[in-house]
Amino acid sequence: MLNDDDLNRYARQVIIPNFEEEGQEKLLKTKCLIVGAGGLGCPVALYATAAGFGYIEIFDDDVIEISNLNRQVAHKTSHVGINKAENLVEECKKINPSISIVSNKERFDESSNITNFDLIFDCSDNPKTKYILNFLSHKYKKILISGSAVQMEGQLAIWKSGVNVDYPCYECAFPKTNEKAPITNCREAGIIGPITGIIGSMQVNEAIKEIALKNYRSKAGYLFLYDGLTQNLEKIKLIKNYKCKLCSN
Ligand SMILES: [Zn+2]
What we know:
By secondary structure, this protein is α/β, with parallel strands linked by helices. It has one domain: NAD(P)-binding Rossmann-like Domain (Rossmann fold), CATH 3.40.50.720. The protein has nine helices and eight strands. It has an eight-stranded mixed β-sheet with strand order 3-2-1-4-5-6-7-8, sandwiched between helices. Helix 4 (41-51) links the parallel strand 1 and strand 2 (55-59). Helix 4 packs parallel to helix 5 and helix 4 packs parallel to helix 9 (193-212). The longest helix has 20 residues, at 193-212. The radius of gyration is 18 Å and the shape is globular. The mean pLDDT is 96. Residues 161, 168-169, 171-172, 241, 244, 246-247 line the site of zinc ion.
C-alpha cells in the first residue's frame, strides 16, 4: 500500500490506466543500476528518480568538465571538477528524497557486481562497457536498457536474452570484430544536447513499462533508431543469432 506522501508525489502517474497504485508499488521495489552519469545518465537518473524507482545506484569514475555542460543537464558550471556520479546523486536527492540513491566512483568493469539489481541502464559511451554490460546482464538474467547518441542520431534497445532465450543479445546485433570501430563518441564526433535528452527519456519510459505496466508487450528484440535531423524513428526487428557465443550456448 502506498502511504499518503507517495500518493501525493506520484498522483499524476498512479491515475494512468494499467499503471495505477500497483505499478507505483512495483517501481518503488525496483533496484536500478545506471552505468554512466553523462549525457544519457543525467536524464535517465533524473527521470528514474522522479518516477520513484526505489533504489538507484549510479556508476561513473569521471569528473565534470565545462565541455560536458551542453548536454549533461544535471551538472552545473559550479560543479566542474566534481565526480559525475556523486554530483548526479546530489541533484537527484533534491528531486526525490524519499528513495535511496547512491553513487559509485569506480570504473564499471567485468568484476562489478550486478546481482542485486532488477534493471540496468546502459548510459555508457564506449563499446567495451556495452559488451561487458551485455555479458553480465545475460549471465545474471537482468533487463538491460541501452542507449547511445552521437551528433544528431540516437539508438535505443531493450535486451532480455537472459530472461528469455528467444530474445537476441547485444552481441547478436553487434558482433565483436577486429576491424577498427567507427568514431562514435561525443568527444570526437560531437553531439547535439537534446538528442541525449530524448534517448535518455526513452530509456526510462521503457523501464517504467517493463516494470510497472499491466498487459504490456515488451519491445525487447527491436532496435530503435532516432534521427534528430529528419525526425524519423525507425523500429528494426533484430534476429536472434543461435550461434552467438554469448547467448546461445
Ligand atoms: Zn547473442
